[in-house]
Amino acid sequence: MTHGRFSLNQATIKYASLAEALQVAVDTGYETIGLWREPVAEVGLDKAVELVQQSGLRVSSLCRGGFFTTLPGPERDAALEDNRRALEEAHRLGTDTLVLVAGGLPVGDRDLIGARERVRDAIGALAEDARSLGVRLAIEPLHPMYAADRAVINTLGQALDIAEQFAPEVAAVVVDTYHVWWDPQVLEQIARAGKDRIASYQICDWITPLPADNLLARGIPGDGHIDFEPITRAVLAAGYEGDIETEIFHADVWARPYAEVATEVADRYHRLIEPLL
Amino acid sequence: MTHGRFSLNQATIKYASLAEALQVAVDTGYETIGLWREPVAEVGLDKAVELVQQSGLRVSSLCRGGFFTTLPGPERDAALEDNRRALEEAHRLGTDTLVLVAGGLPVGDRDLIGARERVRDAIGALAEDARSLGVRLAIEPLHPMYAADRAVINTLGQALDIAEQFAPEVAAVVVDTYHVWWDPQVLEQIARAGKDRIASYQICDWITPLPADNLLARGIPGDGHIDFEPITRAVLAAGYEGDIETEIFHADVWARPYAEVATEVADRYHRLIEPLL
Q1: Helix axes B18-27, B45-55, angle to 10 degrees
Q2: Backbone angles phi, psi at A233, to 5 degrees
Q3: How many CB atoms lie under 10 A from the CB of residue A54?
Q4: Residues in contact with A276: Cβ distance below 8 Å, sequence separation at least 6, in sequence order
Q5: Taking phi first (over 0 means left), then psi (-120 to 50 degrees means alpha), and beta for anything else, what does residue B160 get?
Q6: Could you read off the pLDDT of B129-138 as tens digits, one per residue?
Q7: What ipTM does this complex have?
Q8: What pLDDT digit, counting tens, does each position of B64-91 carry?
Q9: Three-state DSSP class for A236?
Q10: Which class for B82: exposed (0-12), middle (13-18), buried (19 or more C-beta within 10 A)?
Q11: Interchain pair B147, A182: CB under 8 A
Q12: Superfamily of domain B6-276
């Protein structure tokens, strides 16, 4: 059985090397995979490109750029440079989507509005690079519980307010159920995004009690509280035709055999999402 | 030194009995206190009313009603009955504000939209009781990380959408910085609420890393990432003239001597909030 549009984000099997992740994906019936920069860097970009080509898999996205909320200065310049490298990596790896996690408040800084303005400015600074490489800056709103320390962009509406200041081929948004399911405006904001502005759709569940480490608190679809039907229907109604990823950060999931996890999440996709397509 | 509009929410010194909490508040210069139903119930309502009157303190609010998102049936009927008792208690204790925590998704239920509709319906069911007792149903939007298991009302905008369906003397909202600080729309929603719809303003900080138990993750104002100035200025500009509470759920705070905690939070109020008044 193959999984069509369903993409295994590599972070779901975090401890796999790039070669292992590609092999697991192929062996368990995937046609597409979401990559992360760290395992790519481990083997070097040239080798990574070769491995991906040999695998025959599509690359649905590259994670991640962003973390550019620091105040103007060397740290911010370095962050923008790193994002330019990430765009180049995405291009070489054959994906048109670089996922951006904005970054939190600078240490000791409480100016949330200012940090949010710097996200818009950073997208502007990267826009021409993105356009020339044919890679979209995919702004991922993160759940508000990460606003202080990880991402100051916390709703789809806010991500779209920024993305819409640029051409659709330059800036778009990521819809990850884990981050947006609670939002009373989620369905209307997905409709507002439309086909042009949805760069990636990701499915992940919200489980309770919230695990102690809130960075590793994600659930396999079907294990938690999210009703995937209305959000998926809204994404489809918006015209989204791309891959559908799953990205599970959870220590228990990471401890399991890679192929077992890859198969289980695909089973959930076939049960919960595919019937809606 | 007295603390004017600054109110010690009893949950900040959670393990104090009602008598102890009132005494601590008086001894440390408070003129007003926010009460919880459990310590009131421990001594009985009549005795609680007597203790409060003897203390000379205002009661800024009573926590809490709500938890009425269950599906129609005996459990929901019991929840509404309990809320009616809470309204009566608030009235007897001399406060016009009953803080409502909506409740989460019913066990095994993933219909977030339906649960939110039932909150509106519950407010409607309680509106006449509230009006006749002169107690406002103060809808508290809780941080989105509590959407599944504690409160399906997660933004000020959403709380106001419900409150505005009723007269201002019946339904209003609570603005607690801890819950709303991240919201890109927070300042405009505070302005929208205006004097008529802000039943309570509460100050509490967001600290990182988020403590393992997300119910006990609150910080003393000044210890975390929240800039209290813009939110406080917005609340004041809206015309709010009521008490300003602090409510700190944190095991380390609860473990300290009551008077020490009451004094420390008041110091923070004098430093961070009072200069803005």
Answers
A1: 10
A2: -60, -40
A3: 11
A4: A228, A229, A232, A233, A236
A5: alpha
A6: 999 999 999 9
A7: 0.96
A8: 999 999 999 999 999 999 999 999 999 9
A9: helix
A10: middle
A11: yes
A12: Divalent-metal-dependent TIM barrel enzymes (3.20.20.150)
Which residues of A, range 202-261, sit inside 8 Å of B by Cβ? 206, 208-210, 212-214, 224-227, 230
Greatest CA separation found in chain B? 51
Yes or no, beta carbons of A227 and B181 under 8 Å apart: no
Give the three-class secondary structure for B181: coil
Q: How many CB atoms lie within 10 A of CB B164?
A: 16
For the record, the structure tokens of B48 come out as: 């609680």
Quick one: DSSP state of residue A78?
Answer: H
Decide: B156 and B141 in contact? Cβ < 8 Å.
Answer: yes
| Start-to-end C-alpha separation, chain A | 17
pLDDT at A114 over 90: yes
| Helices vs. strands in chain A: H and E counts, helices first | 11, 10
| Helix, strand, coil content of chain B in percent (nearest 5) | 50, 15, 35
CB pairs < 8 Å spanning A and B:
78
Other CB atoms closer than 10 Å to residue A196's CB: what's the count?
Answer: 15
Q: Is the peptide bond before B209 cis (omega within 30 degrees of 0)?
A: yes
Instruction: Tell whether B1 lies on the interface with A, counting CB pairs under 8 A.
Output: no
Residue A7, token pair as written in the block: 């993409």
What distance lies between CA B117 and its chain's CA centroid? Answer: 21
